[in-house]
Amino acid sequence: METLEELLVDVRACRVCAAMLPLGPRPILQVSSTARLLIASQAPGTKAHQSGVPFSDASGDRLREWLNIPTKQFYDPTQVAILPMGFCYAGRSRNGGDARPRPECARTWRARLLDAMPELRLTLVIGIHAQNYIFGHGSMTARVHDFRDYLPRYLPLPHPSWRSGIWERENPWFREDVLPSLRREVTTALAHRIPDRL
Question: Residue 97 pLDDT > 90, yes or no?
Answer without folding.
Answer: no
